[in-house]
Q: What sequence folds into this?
C-alpha cells in the first residue's frame, strides 16, 4: 500500500492514506435519498480533514449514466478554506437531486481519467447496469495500480453482503480500503 511507504499519512474517517488529490464519487441514486444527512455529514468530515495543499473533484452519479462533476471536467479544486466551503456547498446542492439507478462502473471509469492519487466511492447499493465482479475486473485492469480506491458503504450496507463483498474487493485490489457508515 502506497500510504504505508510514504512519510505523510492522513486519516480520513479512519482511512489512512498519503494521497493529497482525490476524486470523490457520490452515488446519487434514488435509494440514497434515505441517507441524505449521512451522506452530507460524511462528505463534510472528509473535506474538513483535508489540508490546504489537497486537491479535490466531486462527481455525483445517477440515473441512466448521468455524471455531475463539481468543477469543469478533469479540473481539481485546492482545499484551502474557500475551496472547502465551495465543495461542501456543492455537496449540499447534490443532496436535492437523488434519483434513478447506480452507474458505478461509468463513474469509476470517469474518475480514473482525473489527475488524482485516489478515488473515494460513496454508495449505498449494488451497481446498476454492470455486474459487481465485472466492475472490479474492469476498473482494476484500467487502473493498473495507479490510484488508490477507497469505498464507503452508506446506510444499511450490512443487509447487503454482495455490496460489501464488491466494495471490499474493489478497494483491496486497488490499494485502498473499505469503510461502512450507518449513522453518527
A:
Amino acid at each position: 500500500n502506497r500510504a504505508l511507504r510514504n512519510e505523510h499519512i492522513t486519516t480520513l474517517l479512519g482511512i489512512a492514506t498519503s494521497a493529497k488529490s482525490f476524486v470523490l464519487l457520490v452515488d446519487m441514486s434514488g435509494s440514497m435519498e434515505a441517507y441524505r444527512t449521512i451522506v452530507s455529514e460524511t462528505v463534510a468530515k472528509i473535506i474538513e480533514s483535508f489540508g490546504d495543499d489537497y486537491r479535490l473533484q466531486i462527481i455525483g452519479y445517477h440515473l441512466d449514466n448521468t455524471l455531475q462533476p463539481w468543477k469543469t471536467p478533469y479540473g481539481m479544486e485546492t482545499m484551502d478554506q474557500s475551496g472547502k466551503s465551495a465543495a461542501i456547498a456543492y455537496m449540499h446542492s447534490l443532496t436535492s437531486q437523488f434519483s434513478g439507478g447506480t452507474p458505478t462502473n461509468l463513474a469509476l471509469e470517469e474518475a480514473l481519467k482525473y489527475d488524482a492519487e485516489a478515488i473515494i466511492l460513496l454508495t449505498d447499493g449494488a451497481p446498476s447496469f454492470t455486474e459487481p465482479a465485472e466492475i472490479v475486473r474492469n476498473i482494476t485492469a484500467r487502473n493498473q495500480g495507479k490510484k488508490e480506491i477507497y469505498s464507503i458503504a452508506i446506510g444499511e450496507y450490512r443487509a447487503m453482503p454482495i455490496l460489501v463483498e464488491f466494495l471490499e474487493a474493489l478497494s483491496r485490489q486497488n490499494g485502498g480500503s473499505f469503510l461502512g457508515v450507518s449513522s453518527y
Remarks:
- The chain has six helices and nine strands.
- Strands lie at 10-12, 15-17, 21-27, 55-62, 66-69, 77-78, 118-123, 148-154, 178-181.
